[in-house]
């Protein structure tokens, strides 16, 4: 067994920050190395680190795994691990590598208390840095929110939040952070549903700005997480009006910026075929719904006076007259990710659209 003095490399990785760098117990420490463990001793403390292999060079001491703190000879064993009232359990956090040389921390296997988390996150960052890792993803569930300020103090930054958790990130290398930013867009859909009587399915919303009072509009809504555009369009129409529909095409889409929550917005207008006729209004969101003659719908002052709405209706009418082709959905599998996805494109043929008519 060899005895070496602490050096800067070891102290940077030490979760207790003992000895010369940040003395909790004071004094100059030493380390004893065997084939299985490293023993770090400072004044009043004794810490054992599990190591990957025997390391006899004070310039290259690699630490990982569980760290057990024993104060003097008085130690306590809790749930199979050694701990103390001062620091608790300390170890490199359970995590897996992502495909971009980053680390994703397991949110189900975080330390049991805040003090242990603070020590473990410092040790983990030092270890991952030594391994050449780049981005670190830390997902903290709602019931572990007490760990958020600790992570922020250690250098983590907010990425995004959902009802059940907050996601934080840490960029290890020097230089600009290359982690992808939070989602930049929200996605909405509108359903253009027209029956064989040339009537359009329209609604009046309960909650709207005064300028929209009395206006009949298309059923609209937001896409849910992991929901297809075509599925979201049929779902929104069903929820608001009770009408079952079949997706035909994406007629057009709008791209706007700094809308809700200052995010960009994609809004897809979908043509849908009605499969039922009986309207059942969702009285939580919708004040009224009905089948309205297309000519009456387009004559509304707000529709005629708004360039975007007027253009959308003109496109829908052109599609009904087969002078325009929208984007239908096709399931494809890409070798890039091996997953099935929806590719939207149009197919021009003699039955759907006449290319000659479109070019006239």
Automatic annotation (TrEMBL):
GO terms for molecular function: ADP-ribose diphosphatase activity; metal ion binding; NAD binding; NADH pyrophosphatase activity. Transmembrane segments: none annotated. This is Nudix hydrolase 8. Keywords: Hydrolase, Metal-binding. The keyword Hydrolase applies. Belongs to the Nudix hydrolase family. It holds the Pfam family NUDIX. InterPro entries: NUDIX_hydrolase-like_dom_sf, Nudix_hydrolase6-like, NUDIX_hydrolase_CS, NUDIX_hydrolase_dom, Pre-Nudix. CDD domains: NUDIX_ASFGF2_Nudt6. PROSITE patterns: NUDIX, NUDIX_BOX. Residues 184-314 form the Nudix hydrolase domain. It comes from the Eukaryota.
């Amino acid at each position: 067994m060899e005895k070496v003095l602490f050096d800067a490399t070891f102290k940077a990785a030490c979760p207790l920050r003992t000895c010369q760098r940040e003395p909790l117990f004071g004094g100059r420490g030493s380390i004893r190395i065997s084939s299985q463990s490293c023993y770090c001793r400072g004044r009043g403390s004794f810490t054992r680190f599990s190591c990957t292999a025997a390391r006899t060079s004070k310039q290259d001491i690699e630490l990982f795994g569980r760290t057990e703190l024993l104060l003097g000879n008085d130690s306590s064993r809790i749930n199979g691990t050694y701990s103390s009232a001062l620091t608790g359990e300390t170890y490199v956090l359970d995590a897996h590598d992502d495909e971009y040389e980053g680390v994703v921390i397991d949110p189900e296997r975080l330390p049991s208390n805040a003090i242990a988390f603070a020590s473990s996150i410092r040790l983990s960052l030092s270890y991952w840095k030594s391994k050449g890792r780049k981005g670190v993803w830390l997902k903290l569930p709602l019931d572990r929110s007490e760990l958020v300020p600790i992570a922020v103090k250690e250098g983590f930054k907010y990425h995004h939040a959902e009802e059940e958790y907050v996601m934080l990130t840490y960029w290890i290398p020097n230089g600009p952070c290359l982690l992808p930013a939070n989602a930049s867009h929200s996605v909405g859909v509108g359903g253009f549903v027209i029956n064989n009587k040339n009537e359009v399915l329209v609604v009046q919303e309960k909650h709207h700005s005064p300028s929209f009072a009395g206006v009949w509009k298309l059923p609209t809504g937001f896409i849910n997480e992991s929901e297809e555009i075509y599925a979201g369009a049929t779902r929104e129409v069903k929820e608001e009006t009770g009408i079952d529909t079949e997706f035909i095409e994406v007629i057009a889409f709008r791209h706007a910026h700094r809308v809700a929550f200052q995010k960009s917005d994609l809004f897809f207008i979908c043509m849908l075929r009605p499969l039922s006729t009986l309207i059942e209004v969702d009285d939580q969101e919708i004040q009224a719904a009905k089948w309205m003659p297309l000519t009456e719908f387009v004559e509304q002052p707000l529709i005629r006076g708004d360039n975007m709405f007027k253009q959308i209706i003109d496109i829908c009418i052109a599609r009904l007259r087969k002078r325009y082709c929208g984007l239908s959905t096709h399931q494809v599998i890409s070798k890039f990710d091996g997953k099935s996805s929806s590719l939207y494109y149009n197919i021009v043929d003699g039955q759907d659209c006449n290319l000659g008519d479109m070019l006239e």
